[in-house]
């Protein structure tokens, strides 16, 4: 008996080791692959400094390009982390773009209402604006959660509605308060803080999702809601929490986007310009892991920063084609390297059986 | 107490925004401006003091269709509206204004206005209306139209285009000269300066469209004319609404040694100014005098390449009233007609030496006299 149990334990240990090794090897594959590509560009660039590889090496190995990549990726990574919490809990939130828009606008609106130079209780107005932006994201996502979870609306349609509501509401509210769809400059910004906010959020989200009881509830609500229900935890409450967290993180992303430049632009697709949709790709690519989503966002941000400088070198390639490099590479990487496993119950409503 | 008040203003503000937003949703594509039924009766935004719907008591009834950015853009559309309001003061006209939200609505508004038959002239602002107007002009051959920034070949359309390349040539020439001189403005913590040892200037474009390319072409030719050793770096952000992208593009240029960056990118350009502010460098504005329209950045804007959109709007209304509307004509407004000009910054323009300003004036005269040929494509 005891031997048997030990054997079982042994086997389980072995199995989990193999599992770990497999998952580890995938991560290592990506890390080694990335370092390999960078090293290759570096070596070729050193050997042939006049070649395009030389140009590329000079662009990539530059501190200012790295900080640019981080700045570009911040709103995307934050929105992606938000998307992870919603979808891991079983609610597909394609309204991230709308959450970014509404929080970007509200952050600027509240900062302007208080007065950009004012402080309230020693907090500069711009940070109160930031919090207001986050709150706006949370409120809109709460609405989305109620519609999807309580009234069992189609999550994709409700997500689109979130985007369309924000796309109409923010520019319209802007014309009321600022007299135009663009708010005009606040004259103050939050500088490079979004980078720090993003890095902290990645860490916090990773711990919360993978190393807390609440995180395991979130994952269970998306994988096997019945098991969670049987364990006596309310699936709909966990899903509400997941959706609210998506509003919280996306709200930080939107507020970061507008306050790092100090204004909101509501013309056309607004200043968010599809970053919310890129965020969806980022978290799928990162296989619902906050660190993975951050890596995918950084890949996109890095390619975008490189793309800007490639245009400036002025090869004979049309600029519009160079602009598409980040998108093309992300699609290629997603197709060949990406391993995405969608949570089993994502997009499905759960009826509790009492 | 004060915090309570803040909370109250906040709640009031969001309440108003929310209610108005809902109203906006039900209001449909007209944006609460003008009438839904296309009769052209009255205009909802209350700035028309003589908005009749008949042709009897006014000399001309004008339909204005603005470009996407809409009124309040501190630039293109506001300039067009100034032309309209000037005409409203000088003549006995009535008008109806609409601000389309996206390119799909251009055709809709053009047709609504044309269908009603109430308008003597329909003014289409911006090159994005070209395709829609090409169709509308054929479908309503008796309706008179005018369009700014592009050419629609039809007998009932008066076209007005600007020679942006000429204005941009002057800007390029000015930038090249300035990047070679030692220009330092401001003191201690807000000092910005050029680096005469490294002469680089930059150009940031919005969408890579033929119109924006003419800005780039003129700018590059102007730099080249000043001194072949000055390097120009250019890039496009792919959007007119992405200030964050504009900032990154300009930052990388300043990082590569650029002293001055010129932009032709609409709302994206605010990011260029922000980057100049961050890096202690300079920028040049576009369309209107941006040192006035973006006062927060007046300390970085050396000059602006202005396009006087007022002129064609006013002129076409005058022509309509006087019966001298010329369908099928193409009017080109360059430096000579004061359609485009190089305007020095309100706050720091005075720091530019008179020698350089005289040189720029000379070049302007040479372009007008035809001694310098300014290219239209880079």
Automatic annotation (TrEMBL), chain A:
Q: InterPro entries recorded for this chain?
A: ABC_transp_permease (IPR001851)
Q: How does it sit in the membrane?
A: Multi-pass membrane protein
* UniProt-recorded Gene Ontology molecular function terms: transmembrane transporter activity
Q: What is this protein called?
A: ABC transporter permease
Which residue positions does the secretion signal occupy?
Answer: none
**What GO cellular component term, any one, is given?**
plasma membrane
Q: Which organism is it from?
A: Natronocalculus amylovorans
Give the stretches traversing the membrane: 24-48, 68-86, 98-115, 121-149, 156-178, 190-209, 243-265, 277-300, 321-338
Q: Does ATP-binding show up as a keyword for this record?
A: no
Task: Name its cellular compartments.
Answer: Cell membrane
User: Which keywords, in A-to-Z order, does the entry hold?
Assistant: Cell membrane, Membrane, Transmembrane, Transmembrane helix
Entry-linked CDD domains: TM_PBP1_transp_TpRbsC_like
UniProtKB/TrEMBL annotation, chain B:
- Could you list this entry's UniProt keywords, alphabetically sorted: Cell membrane, Lipoprotein, Membrane, Signal
| Protein family according to the UniProt entry | Belongs to the BMP lipoprotein family.
Origin organism is: Natronocalculus amylovorans
Q: How does it sit in the membrane?
A: Lipid-anchor
Report the domain of life of the source organism.
Archaea
A Pfam family the protein falls into? Bmp
Annotated region described as Disordered, given as residue ranges: 28-55
Give the protein's recorded name: BMP family ABC transporter substrate-binding protein
Task: Kindly give the InterPro entries that the UniProt entry links to this protein.
Answer: BMP_lipoprotein, Peripla_BP_I, PnrA-like, TAT_signal, TAT_signal_bac_arc
Query: PROSITE patterns given for it?
Result: PROKAR_LIPOPROTEIN (PS51257), TAT (PS51318)
Provide the protein's localization: Cell membrane
- SUPFAM superfamilies per the record? Periplasmic binding protein-like I
Q: What GO cellular component term, any one, is given? A: plasma membrane
Composition bias type Gly residues, residue spans: 28-51
What positions does the domain ABC transporter substrate-binding protein PnrA-like occupy? 64-376
């Amino acid at each position: 008996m005891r031997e048997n149990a030990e054997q079982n334990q042994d086997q389980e240990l072995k199995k989990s080791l193999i599992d770990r090794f497999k998952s580890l090897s995938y991560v290592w594959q990506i890390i080694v692959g990335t370092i390999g590509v960078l090293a290759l560009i570096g070596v070729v660039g050193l050997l042939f400094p006049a070649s395009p590889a030389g140009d590329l090496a000079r662009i990539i190995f530059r501190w200012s390009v790295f900080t640019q990549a981080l700045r570009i990726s911040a709103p995307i990574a934050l929105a992606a982390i938000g998307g992870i919490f919603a979808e891991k809990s079983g609610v597909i939130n394609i309204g991230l773009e709308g959450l970014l828009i509404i929080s970007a606008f509200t952050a600027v609106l509240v900062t302007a209402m208080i007065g950009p130079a004012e402080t309230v209780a020693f907090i500069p107005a711009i940070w109160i604006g930031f919090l207001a932006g986050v709150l706006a994201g949370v409120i809109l996502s709460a609405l989305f959660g109620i519609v999807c979870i309580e009234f069992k609306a189609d999550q994709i349609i409700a997500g689109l509605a979130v985007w369309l509501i924000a796309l109409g509401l923010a520019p319209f509210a802007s014309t009321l308060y600022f007299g135009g769809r663009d708010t005009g400059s606040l004259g103050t910004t939050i500088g490079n803080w979004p980078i720090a906010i993003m890095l902290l959020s990645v860490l916090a989200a990773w711990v919360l999702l993978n190393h807390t009881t609440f995180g395991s509830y979130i994952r269970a609500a998306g994988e096997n809601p019945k098991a969670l229900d049987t364990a006596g935890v309310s699936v709909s409450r966990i899903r509400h929490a997941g959706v609210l967290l998506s509003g919280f993180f996306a709200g930080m992303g939107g507020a970061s986007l507008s306050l790092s430049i100090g204004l909101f632009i509501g013309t056309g697709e607004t200043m968010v310009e599809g970053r919310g949709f890129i965020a969806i790709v980022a978290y799928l690519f990162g296989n619902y892991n906050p660190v993975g989503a951050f890596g995918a966002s950084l890949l996109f941000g890095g390619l975008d920063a490189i793309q800007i400088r490639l245009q400036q070198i002025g090869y004979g390639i049309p600029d519009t084609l160079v602009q598409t490099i980040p998108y093309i590479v992300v699609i290629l990487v997603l197709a060949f390297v990406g391993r995405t496993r969608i949570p089993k119950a994502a997009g499905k409503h759960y009826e509790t059986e009492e | 107490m004060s915090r309570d008040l803040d909370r109250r203003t906040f709640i009031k503000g969001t309440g108003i925004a929310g209610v108005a937003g809902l109203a906006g949703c039900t209001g449909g594509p007209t944006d609460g401006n003008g009438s839904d039924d296309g009769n052209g009766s009255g205009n909802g935004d209350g700035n028309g003091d003589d908005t009749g719907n008949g042709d009897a008591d006014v000399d001309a009834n004008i339909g204005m269709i603005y470009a996407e950015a809409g009124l309040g853009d501190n630039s293109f559309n506001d300039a067009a509206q100034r032309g309209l309001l000037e005409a409203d003061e000088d003549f006995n006209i009535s008008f109806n204004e609409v601000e389309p939200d996206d390119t799909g609505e251009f055709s809709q508004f053009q047709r609504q206005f044309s269908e009603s038959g109430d308008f003597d002239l329909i003014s289409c602002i911006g090159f994005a209306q070209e395709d829609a107007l090409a169709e509308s002009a054929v479908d309503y051959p008796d309706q008179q139209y005018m369009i700014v920034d592009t050419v629609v070949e039809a007998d009932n359309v008066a076209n007005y285009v600007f020679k942006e390349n000429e204005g941009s040539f002057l800007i390029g020439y000015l930038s090249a000269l300035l990047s070679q001189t030692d220009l330092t403005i401001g003191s201690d913590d807000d000092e910005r300066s050029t680096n005469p040892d490294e002469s680089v200037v930059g150009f940031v474009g919005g969408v890579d469209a033929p119109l924006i390319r003419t800005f780039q072409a003129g700018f590059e030719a102007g730099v080249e004319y000043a001194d072949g050793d000055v390097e120009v770096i250019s890039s496009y952000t792919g959007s007119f609404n992405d200030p964050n992208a504009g900032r990154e593009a300009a930052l990388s240029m300043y990082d590569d040694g650029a002293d001055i960056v010129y932009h032709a990118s609409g709302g994206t350009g605010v990011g260029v100014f922000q980057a100049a502010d961050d890096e202690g460098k300079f920028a040049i504005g576009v369309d209107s005098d941006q040192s006035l329209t973006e006062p927060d950045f007046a300390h970085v804007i050396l000059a602006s390449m202005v396009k006087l959109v007022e002129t064609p709007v006013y002129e076409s209304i005058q022509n309509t009233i006087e019966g001298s509307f010329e369908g099928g004509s193409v009017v080109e407004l360059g430096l000579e007609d004061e359609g485009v000009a190089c305007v020095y910054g309100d706050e720091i323009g005075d720091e530019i030496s008179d020698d350089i300003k005289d040189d720029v004036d000379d070049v302007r005269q040479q372009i007008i006299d035809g001694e310098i040929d300014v290219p239209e494509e880079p």
